[in-house]
Amino acid sequence: MNFLKAIAGEFLFRLIHPLTLLNNYKNYTMKKIFYINYLILIVNIIEINPVKAQSCVLTNNLNVSTGISTIGSNLTTNGQIDPYWQLTNVAPPSVNTVGGINIPNAYTIISGSSVGYSNWCQIPGTVSLNVIPNYIFGTNNINLTQPWKFRRKFSVTASGTITISGSYIGDDQSELHICDPSGTVLFTDNQAGWSIIKQFSKTLQVNQGCYFIELSLTNVGSGLMGFAMNANITSTSNILSNPSLQCCSASIISGQKWIDNNCNGKIDAGDAPGAGWVFNLLNGSTIIQTSVSDANGQFYFNNIPIGTYTIAEVIQSGYSPISPAGGTQTVSVSQNNSVILLNNFLNCKAPPCQCGQFDSLIYNNTTYTTNWPNLSLGQGLASGILTAFYHCNPSTEGCTTSYNWQVLANGTPLSPAIISTTNSFNLSLLNGLACGTYTIKVTPTCGTTACTPKTILVKFDCPPLPCPCVGMPPVITQSAVNVITQNNASNANPVSTITTNFTLTTSVPISEVRILIDEFRLTTTAGNENCMLCRNKPQTWANINSATLTGVTNQTIVNPSALEKDIRELVFNNGAGTAFNLNGNILSLTLGLPGVTGLDCCTLKADVCIKFIIRDVNCCEREIMKCFTFNLQ
Questions:
Q1: pTM for the whole thing?
Q2: Could you tell me which residue ranges the SD-repeat containing protein B domain spans (predicted)?
Q3: Residues 167-177: tens digit of each pLDDT
Q4: Is 485:633 a contact under the CB 8 Å cutoff?
Q5: 354-460: which CATH topology?
Q6: Residue 323: CB partners within 8 Å, gap ≥ 6?
Q7: Is it the case that residue 54 has pLDDT exceeding 50?
Q8: Are 141 and 94 in contact (CB under 8 A)?
Q9: Which residue of 163, 175, 377, 444 lies most exposed, with the fewest beta carbons within 10 A?
């Protein structure tokens, strides 16, 4: 656009000087003269829209006084809006009767009869400003020391050295800051008193960016309010400019944090500013700036381009957002050099988190509110999810429920424990348990307080409930047989014995192992039937003399010397409702057998069949027969 303007200007210059045009362009055709007219039209179009053609007007001496117009003269009418100084916040008054405050307007107050004080808050050559077009401000703020903040932006187009100097005065109290583009304070100056004009001067090394002067004005006397400044910024080269569409055009987002102590959703007596709260400015889901509220709860996001943004507070523990909902607010920056004032962020201190009540339990798509069900399940077939819902008091953010599920047998938690720490419990966790009745207990916790639990009884009833066998069949292997004989030559009642071992392996937990001497047979393989003693006692016909199973409680066997005992069945378990694993466990077995005669010519053969009945935790019983033959000589 500037290139076209330059060309058009050149042709316009030639047109204004007809002799030159005649001498240099006398051979031009009418068509080319029309072309010149078009260029003149371009110039007119460009000049008709001066805003688009506006650029940084650079200087080495920038007047930043109050009440100065865009052409450098003083504003002369009371209530005019200063074109450069902007009000960036609203410090809530103690009574809501102050009208005429409009962000970002800073209004002129002309001294003289209209004000009543010919020299009130005035500096020669400047005009005073206030938040309203009047010097009278008859109320203090809710937070007495919270200031109204006015900013005067200026652009630095290149690195260099600048000096800001001048004087200012404020009623009732004022404080001067010079800040860099991020809002970091580079210089602070405090006014000596409301009736004293304070001088200041500061030299700074600066880089390119949008800087600002901030005047904080506090009203503590419930009377007059306003301020004035007479100041200039100088530099060694032309690097300074007023804010424009091309220079320092970004906007300000201003907000304030309040603790709503009475939780009524508005700012009133007794409420306090929220200092030290973190706020994030997001473009979509990306955090582009972070601001922390100051002692007055005030926070800013500086140099924000046109766009739509979300402001989200980081909610502190023990507080709940009242407004805006969820502690987030969406704003649109639609104009350059604007000030966007957010709605106040109000939070209420959450009351102590206390126990409430269970709302419901959901199981198998059925909702139970008061009477929770007891369950009767097939062992190893438990399935489904128990989901509990409990609410604490009050039901506010930070007062949430945590859950602890336990499984107990006879009032004692199982070991190893079966637990869940969400609001759901998967019943399949119970499938390793033996037959019996168990208690599922869910205990809610509100804050740090454990609340009254609820319980559900679960019964695994075996074997009446059908329990299909699962897993691989048991594997039993036998070791060698060791035979020790006794004869009647030295014993009146001879008892022989054999000892053998069986290795047991299963794929599922076991509740019981039972062994039975299913068959015993004695035959003569050499000699004749007289080789068998006819006086053998019952316990010598494969009576169980002793037996142990590793990992399972030992069983006591009656001493075989008691000839009247006859033990042919034995059970291994660890008690009702328990289970154990068989993974190569050794079952050692000793059987009592008949004695033999003293005749060397006799050979006896014994056949033994032992039945193993193995019951697993799924109520499945499997029978395995192990038969073997040995000589008894």
A1: 0.53
A2: 258-330
A3: 999 888 889 99
A4: yes
A5: Coagulation Factor XIII; Chain A, domain 1 (2.70.50)
A6: 265, 343, 344, 345, 346
A7: no
A8: yes
A9: 163
